[in-house]
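Data availability (excerpt). The following record was deposited with the supplementary files.
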Amino acid sequence: MLQKKWWHEKTAYQIYPKSFMDANGDGVGDLRGIIGKLDYLKGLGIGIVWISPIYQSPFVDQGYDISDYYAIDPAFGTMEDMDELLAEAKKRGISIVMDLVVNHCSDKHEWFQKAMENPFGKYGKYFYIREGKDGNPPCNWRSYFGGSAWEKVPGYDNLFYLHMFAKEQPDLNWENEEVRQEIYKMIRWWLEKGIAGFRLDAIINIKKDLRFADFPADREDGMCSAGVMLEHAQGVHEFLQEMKREAFAPYDAFTIGELFDFRIEELEQYIGAGGCFESIFDFAPHVLGGTNHGWFNRREVTPDEFCDAIYRSKRVSQDIGMMANIIENHDEPRGVSRYLPKDGLHDTGKKMLAGISLMSFGLPFLYQGQEIGMTNKQFHDIAEVDDISTHDEYRVALSRGVGKEEALARVSGMSRDNARTPMQWSSEVHAGFTEGKPWLPENENYREINVAQQEGREDSVLSFYKKLIALRTDPAYTECVVYGKQVPVLTELSDFMGFLREGREKTLLVLANYRSMEREAVIPQKVKKIVMDNCEAKDTAAHISDAKEGSSILMKGYQFLVLEV
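Predicted structure:
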């Protein structure tokens, strides 16, 4: 049994501030916009809000390149606005979590500016600066955004600095204790201010393979992916435990790590009783369909693959700790566009996907717009895309002989801009996000999919999310939904997901018909009550309510059921 934590019964929500709500009409979302929507979040049932970076930044990577950790970027407002947000959120029982981006900083940060002035001085040791090989990079690591992970130090022919992401995001040298102490000081400063904790960005990258050796190339460019290096890096847990001891633990901070490349056998070290973090995101479905070659040759994820990934993940994790269930975030395309077949991209299918995510064991983590079923955007030209990663993947596709139109179509489905279009509040101009010109054009379907259109409807996707979230805090079901064991059932059925949530006093049976055709499913236990039904059909109630163990029930296409058994 897991040791109970204050956050276990919560539902969390990620805000991408630039696209959430613009209060001053400049086309960019801001802190005052968030403050104005706190009642909406409370009404949705949200208890934790993670805000993507709002620190001072030149925005090469949308704020994940931080030039001053102690300042709010003017695009978002002031520190006074931040203080007000914390106070108003607290009144509503909402805890604020900030992004912690400490694998790297911005090349405009004072530390890096001083390092470039004197690469061999104090601040040069704040970064990984190495000699190259006859003017070429020290090794063949590829950055996450494409191209070499090494960039020449200005004014030196054979001196390079490491950047696992964009060249404007130099990696901080965690081997330097002075760097680590500066980071811990900054963390404590924010926790003293009243935030509840941090989401730790790309945190496993803080430990490098210090041999800086070449690895076998995995593309025609002669380079290897950053993930290969991480497989050889040893000792990240020592850094993470030190950070926990010196910065997080004294404040009982909630910490959630972004870990794509961790070793499964080390999961307990991350989220177990003495783990580095409180939780990590469950990316099991997100890595499906990918290859080493790039987005252009990804394949679509099948329903069976999606369900199997969740089954495997929960089997490994639920006895160790609580991972966070997500179907999308600011770095991923919209979940309904990615995981639903085209014939399921409707309200019933969206509700089914919501149900699978929120009824699985773990901390539910919604991304803005997910609760109304926002979809991917249609891009007509690569010039419409802002995302640095999408532009690189587009170039990769072209270099492999894919035509421009097809290359755009292939990479668009994975573009991070799909999730970064403005939040769709209403059918008014610019989706009610701003009175000005939005920094990124809104999705063209905002008149059909928006909060105002769904808020008053009992059958809307938004209303279904509210019911799912409320189930987590319903005294009758909290123990079962939050802590109940997740046990797969009916796994022999294709395009289907079934599992029990076994609590101490109650057991819930969760069924999802992951296809458009009706099907029969055998109930493994006697049904006591229908708790949730995304079709809310009277005929469903009639033939399921008194179903006995071994009874066969007829499920509609994309029907999702939660049954007390």
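Summary of structural features: The domain at 110-162 is CATH 3.90.400.10 (Oligo-1,6-glucosidase; domain 2).
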